[in-house]
Specification:
The protein has 738 residues and is an alpha+beta fold. The chain is built from 23 helices and 30 strands. The protein folds into five domains: 115 residues, Pleckstrin-homology domain (PH domain)/Phosphotyrosine-binding domain (PTB) (PH-domain like), CATH 2.30.29.30; 77 residues, Orthogonal Bundle (Recoverin, domain 1), CATH 1.10.238.10; 73 residues, Recoverin, domain 1; 269 residues, Phosphatidylinositol (PI) phosphodiesterase (TIM Barrel, Alpha-Beta Barrel); 131 residues, C2 domain (Immunoglobulin-like).
């Protein structure tokens, strides 16, 4: 770290031809890295227009030629001098080449040390303390380690706190124990603590504490049972919480919880709105593939728009890291017999198919052990199709599924559990699955008795046509996901082939939902369906996945590169079950004879509607709006949105609070009726109210209703990109009644 703080001259690389010397230096606070162009000595702001690289934005560091940019200069620079800094969200990588292998190692190891996650109980205290220290250093203009009242006021502005001057001055004087008219390190921490005193948490604490100073073990148990509805092993839980969150050793030894410990519990994982038991793998993974919603991406290779966007391996790495389990590749003939991946008939850049496959082999099972479906859009000639098949087999080896799991024709799809660590190809296939298993036969497929003559004829004709345009080697790699055109639910049911799959455009799917909702749900109980965005969405915008999930469609493909409500819903649904990319559908959507139709909620068997009551109490340290004016303070409001069957779609919002992003208090109650709670997603959005134009987005958090914990809970907000923005949160009380 000391070496990094002295600074290092390295090359920043953007492409094969753009490689410039830059001077990189870790700042004293170990929180930021500045870099400047050597020549002029002027600081080049890292990603424009924001300032330096903040360590908290760094997700990981890759060594060697592990990005397309560094692969393109692999012949010039050895891998041991190269490394890539990868950021959270959708921000581009920073590719660097050090002067020597030792310098590269110094930065790689140093960065890894800085981003290493710390154990949880520390993080809350740490986030607060390092956060305070960090701000203190920013505002201490003359760097004397003290702050006068003027500097403190400027700091509050920077922290999005607009405080009444008298109130701030009173707190300042209370904290200035040395009466020097300035605050030094510890005094500033005192001042900050007084400032962040959470009145609403304190009064809740005092409601359950007899002496108002501590919660005894029994008082904590009462709180957990009555308010948090923790009914199993409550005493063990109470002991655990005291051990984990009580900062004072004497209190821990006496099994009591102080107000500080109580606040730390409420801000922790256990005090979060998201049920921690559902964060891990908690669902049955042994049901047929079609009984799960599957996290799916459209045009995975694009990281921008559909017309001129950049095609990139990073698209696949990012999607897989987010738990995506169905990826798309568009393959076209390339030079020198090498198939290429890009968006046909547009100006998007191209990547070799072989690179996509090796990336898939490397990253497919880092986030999840469950199967990946590779959706192949094949535009290649017969010759290059042979190459596709060869590359898939050579690079993926055992990972590629090339036969059924038991060697028999399936009567239903296998389960995610049975397909662990397997990659399934979804593409066109010559003839039926039987033919692949029996070995190649030249005769036309046999026709089963119930097939009538005309249908059999049609099938023979299609198999013959496929033989002329499809390479047998590629066709043989398609096992459980044979692409077939959709010709109606009756038609599909009459053949009853679970290993076939149809793709529908969003518009076609909407029409079927409207006209044949129940049939659609039944169809999805035994066969897979893939939905893709309309071709008109050249800006890579997304449709709402919710209406597709409402009829049980499993593979609802979205443009992962585009942030917004639709991706928030996708992240919200798949953030449970260990982020494995598979979420089990409710029982009434897994039954082939189900009567359920999302347009008629009463068709769902089970208890009547549920009432969800949300008291929005307060907000904590909400971030400023991106690119807002210097000194601007937000006027926050909270909107709660419910996504589900049409009868459940709803939203309500609180009033806005003027000029307070630091600790706004709403104390408002919102109420919703849910007819089909099993399908509902709840999205909490904070916006900056603007009476003349559209409100600005501040932060959001989305989760499935099934994962909500009742009681007093914190909601830890996420940015537009879906990344954490600590310590921003909402404090709410949740009640669920039948």
């Amino acid at each position: 770290l000391e070496q990094m703080q002295q600074g290092t001259l390295m090359r920043k690389v953007k492409s094969k031809s753009w490689k410039k010397q830059r001077y990189f230096k870790l700042q004293e606070d170990c929180m930021t890295i500045w870099y400047q162009s050597k020549r002029t000595g002027k600081t080049e702001h890292a990603p424009p227009p924001s300032a330096p690289v903040s360590i908290s934005d760094v997700e990981t560091v890759r060594e060697g030629h592990q990005s397309e940019v560094l692969q393109s200069v692999a012949e010039e620079f050895p891998p041991e001098r190269c490394f890539t800094i990868v950021f959270y969200g959708r921000r581009g990588n920073l590719d660097l080449i050090a002067g020597s292998a030792e310098e590269a190692q110094c930065w790689v190891q140093g960065l890894r040390q800085l981003i290493e996650p710390r154990p949880f109980p520390l993080t809350f205290a740490l986030v607060s303390c390092t956060w305070i220290r960090d701000w203190f250093q920013k505002a201490d203009k003359n760097k004397d380690g003290r702050m006068n009242f003027k500097e403190v006021q400027r700091l509050l502005k920077m922290m999005n706190v607009d405080m009444n001057e008298d109130h701030a001055l009173r707190l300042f004087q209370d904290a200035d124990k040395s009466e020097s008219g300035t605050l030094e390190g510890e005094e500033f921490v005192l001042f900050y603590k007084a400032l962040t005193q959470r009145e609403e948490v304190l009064s809740l604490f005092q409601e359950f504490s007899e002496d108002g100073k501590k919660l005894t073990l029994l008082e904590l148990v009462d709180f957990l049972r009555e308010e948090q509805l923790e009914d199993e092993g409550t005493e063990e839980l109470a002991m655990e919480l005291i051990d984990k969150y009580e900062p004072s050793e004497t209190a821990r030894a006496r099994h009591v919880l102080s107000a500080d410990g109580f606040l730390m519990y409420l801000c922790s994982v256990e005090g979060s709105i998201f049920n921690p038991q559902h964060r891990v793998l908690w669902q049955d993974m042994s049901q047929p593939l079609c009984h799960y919603f599957i996290s799916s991406s459209h045009n995975t290779y694009l990281i921008e728009d559909q017309i001129r966007g950049h095609s990139s391996i990073e698209g696949y790495i990012r999607a897989l890291k987010r738990g995506c389990r169905c990826l798309e590749v568009d393959c076209w003939d390339g030079p020198n017999g090498e198939p290429m991946v890009y968006h046909g008939h547009t100006f998007t850049s191209k990547i070799p198919f072989r690179e996509v496959v090796s990336t898939l082999g490397k990253y497919a099972f880092k986030t999840s052990d469950y199967p990946v479906i590779l959706s192949l859009e094949n535009h290649c000639s017969m010759e290059q199709q042979e190459v596709l098949a060869q590359q898939l087999k050579d690079i993926l080896g055992e990972q590629l599924l090339t036969t059924t799991i038991d060697g028999h024709i399936p009567t239903q799809l296998p389960s995610p559990e049975e397909l662990k660590h397997k990659i399934l190809l979804k593409a066109k296939k010559i003839g039926r699955l039987e033919d692949t298993l029996d070995g190649p036969g030249d005769e036309a497929p046999d026709v089963s008795d119930e097939d009538n003559g005309a249908e059999a004829e049609e099938e023979r004709r299609r198999a013959k046509k496929d033989k002329e345009t499809l390479a047998q080697a590629l066709s043989n790699c398609v096992i459980y996901c044979k692409n077939v055109p959709f010709q109606g639910f009756q038609e599909a049911r009459s053949h009853s082939r679970p290993s076939e799959i149809s793709s529908l455009s969003e518009a076609k799917a909407r029409k079927l939902i409207r006209d044949e909702g129940n049939e659609f749900v039944r169809h999805n109980a035994w066969q897979l369906t893939r939905i893709y965005p309309s071709g008109m969405r050249t800006d890579s915008s997304n449709y709402s996945p919710q209406e597709m999930w409402n009829v049980g469609c499993q593979i609802v493909a979205l443009n992962f590169q585009t942030a917004g409500t639709e991706m928030d819903l996708c992240d919200g649904l798949f953030s449970q079950n260990g982020c494995c990319g598979y979420v089990l559908k409710p029982p009434f959507m897994r039954d082939k004879e189900t009567l359920f139709n999302p347009n008629d909620p009463s068709s769902r068997e089970g208890p009547g509607p549920i009432t969800l009551t949300i008291q929005v109490i307060s907000g904590q340290q909400l971030p400023k709006v991106a690119n807002s004016k210097e000194g601007a303070i937000i006027d926050p409001l909270v909107r709660v949105e419910v996504y589900g069957v049409p009868a459940d779609q709803a939203h309500q919002e609180t009033k806005y609070i003027e000029n307070n992003g630091f600790n706004p208090r709403w104390d408002e109650t919102l109420q919703f009726q849910l007819h089909v709670p099993e399908l509902a997603l709840i999205r909490f959005v904070v916006e900056d109210y603007d009476k003349t134009s559209r409100n600005d987005f501040v932060g959001q958090f989305t989760l499935a209703f099934a994962n909500i914990k009742p009681g007093y809970r914190h909601i830890h907000l996420l940015s537009k990109d879906g990344t954490n923005i600590p310590p921003s949160s909402l404090f709410v009380h949740i009640r669920i009644t039948e």
